[in-house]
Amino acid sequence: MLFIVFLIALAVLGPSYWAYDKAFSSRKTKGRDDLDFKFKGQMLENKDRIVGLIRDLKERPFEEVETVSFDGMTLRGSFYHQNDSSPVAICFHGWNGTARRDFSGGAAILLNAGYNVILVDERGQGKSDGQVMSFGINERRDVQSWAEYAFRRFGPERPVFLVGVSMGAAAVLMAADLPLPESVKGIIADSPYDSPYEIIEKVAVKDLGLPKALMFYAKLGAKVFGRFDLEDIKASDCLRRSDLPVLIIHGLADGFVPAYMSKKAADVRPDIVKRITFEGAEHGMSFIVDPARYRRETLDFLSEILDRI
What residues contact residue 209 under an 8 Å CB cut-off, 6+ apart? Predict the structure, then answer.
């Protein structure tokens, strides 16, 4: 009987660990160079411009900074100092991304406008500890840790904005209902999804054609091996419990995180959320498709909040 139970457990946990490793492990990509990725679609069409923006960020002077996560990990980032009195934007990149790649355009806009910028290495990526990404579930608590770091370092009077792209965008939205420091004044989320479960199902089942049964193993693997629940948190639920002003940006040609996913989050709180879309923009490429409008919309959003303080 014990042998039969062992075989059943192995038959369930084996595929669960495989699904967990494929979906959430960052072992193969952790610490890679900002230019070590495949250019395709609009990224390939604009390769020279994007590479130039990345190299500009790499060449700008910055300070290496770190904080500790809720579960004891050391989280690291790069602080670009502009002015002691300027607001601080804390930027969170996407799944299997790097901060300078994903914010090659957004960081330049903020820095050129005089904002101080912290480019965060998400847990399990870059120089931060860990080898697991949880699609925003644990990362949202890391957003809180970085906001508290900024509060301690810069004080309550220095406005702080939370900015994210893709998974980082979902994470900052999911952090909206956490007890953030009073210095946090607003959120910008570029290409976010509403639900970790939904985006994994979309990529695995709809894009890759894998059987829907795989989601059972992915969810079980996340619970058993990662100790997080893919269906526990949605950005829309977090926004319902928040009063922070939010700007959501999404490209209508986004084939990775379809634009309807961010609309779900925006629709629950039209009183605090402004959502803008960019025709023809692929995933995270709105700033490439229409840089003048992207710059205007983001800086106007930030300025309106600062004017009210």
Answer: none
Radius of gyration for the chain, computed over Cα atoms and rounded to the nearest angstrom: 19
pTM higher than 0.90, yes or no? Answer: yes
Contact 25, 132 (CB under 8 A): yes
Tell how strand 273-278 and strand 246-251 pair up. Answer: parallel
- The Cα–Cα gap between 99 and 107 comes to 9
What pLDDT digit, counting tens, does each position of 15-37 carry?
888 888 888 998 877 878 888 88
Name residue 11's amino acid.
A
Instruction: Return d(Cα 12, Cα 20) in angstroms, integer.
Output: 12
The domains of the chain, with CATH numbers, are 1-30+200-230 (no CATH), 33-195+235-308 (3.40.50.1820)
Q: Which of 183, 302, 306 is nearest to 247 (CA)?
A: 302
Distance CA 207, CA 216 (A): 17
Query: Residue 8: is its pLDDT beyond 70?
Result: no
Rounded mean pLDDT, 112-130: 97
Question: What secondary structure letter does DSSP report for 132?
Answer: B
CB 118 within 8 A of CB 79: yes
Closest listed residue to residue 115, CA positions, set 96, 144, 90, 78: 90
In three-state secondary structure terms, 88 is strand
